[in-house]
Amino acid sequence: MTTYSFDLNLQAIAKNAYFYAGLIGPNIQPDTDQLAGAKDLINMRTKELQSEGIILRTLTQQTISLVAGTAIYAMASSVLDIDTGHPYVSGGGIDVPMTEYSRDQYMSLTVKTFTGQPTAFYVEKTPTINVYLYPVPDSSWTTMTLPIITLLPDLNVGTDTTSLMAKYLRCLTLGVAADLAMSMLPQRAPLLFGQYEEAKKLARNDDTERGSLRLIPDYGTYGYGRRF
After folding, report:
1. Are strands 115-116 and 136-137 parallel, antiparallel or unpaired?
2. Are 21 and 61 within one domain?
3. What digits encode the pLDDT tens for the residues 89-104?
4. What confidence score (pLDDT) does residue 2 get?
5. What number is the average pLDDT over the span 221-226?
6. Do 62 and 97 fall into the same domain?
7. What share of the chain is helix, strand, coil (3-state, %, to 5)?
8. In the 8-state DSSP scheme, what is residue 119?
9. Are the beta carbons of 142 and 91 closer than 8 angstroms?
10. Is 4 inside a domain boundary?
């Protein structure tokens, strides 16, 4: 079965944003200068959404080489956190899952330098994310695979895709269109800003769990509110 995940690259967002702003016609590609200007606006809008608490992030698996006798592994600066789903270590053709330790559990270990098969990990959340393994891997264990959470990277070239959930693509495009219109066709800016806010509201509300609610009053055992 073939699956399809809709996404837009930088060039497609720029094209649609210029079209929404009324600056180019339909199916007209922006030129090099227009694309360069839109790139900065797209990345700024992405950062603004993140500053409002809309964390635009990706979850991917990363395999890291282990060094015998080394317990601590620093993650790249782009890593926000480690997902505790299914981290595992590999060696000799087998994969073995690990259990997450809290800081208290890790600090309570009396001998942290014991070597062997890592069975647990502790994530230290400092400006750089560090992963501590216990026991310390010996030469039998060559890699660990972690589900890492990273912020979406900036878009730099026309073919770079956003990796956004589809529901945020219209929101982002309208925000960029509003920015473009504000400097080039200001009479269209208020309408576009309104559409941007509405699209953002709809996308955020979709993240909220909804369901039916029924409230039943409890009158206790004394019959308050009853007719006799």
Report:
1. parallel
2. no
3. 999 999 999 999 999 9
4. 44
5. 52
6. yes
7. 35, 25, 45
8. -
9. yes
10. no
Which domain, by its residues, includes 135?
57-150
d(CA 153, CA 57): 9
> Helix or strand or coil: residue 68?
coil
222 belongs to a structural domain: no
- Among 49, 82, 51, CA closest to 64: 82
Going by their DSSP bridges, the two strands 120-125 and 99-100 should be labelled as: parallel
Amino acid at position 193, single letter: F
Q: Give the chain's mean pLDDT.
A: 85
* Residue 116 counted as domain residue: yes
Which helix (DSSP H) or strand (DSSP E) does residue 171 occupy? helix 169-184
Q: For residue 195, which of 35, 20, 7 has the smallest C-alpha distance? A: 20
Both tokens assigned to 176 = 């960029």
Same domain membership, residue 43 and residue 110: no
The two three-digit tokens of residue 132, written as one number = 């501590």
pLDDT in tens, 41-80: 998 988 888 777 675 667 788 999 999 999 999 998 878 8
Our CA angle for 208, 86, 3, nearest 5°, is 60
The radius of gyration computed from the CA coordinates of the chain, to the nearest angstrom, equals 25
Q: What is the tally of helices (H) and strands (E) in the chain? A: 5, 11
Positions of E strands within the chain? 57-65, 72-74, 79-82, 88-91, 94-97, 99-100, 115-116, 120-125, 129-134, 136-137, 143-151
pTM of the full predicted structure?
0.57
Tell whether 45 is covered by a domain: yes
What pLDDT shows up at residue 168? 85
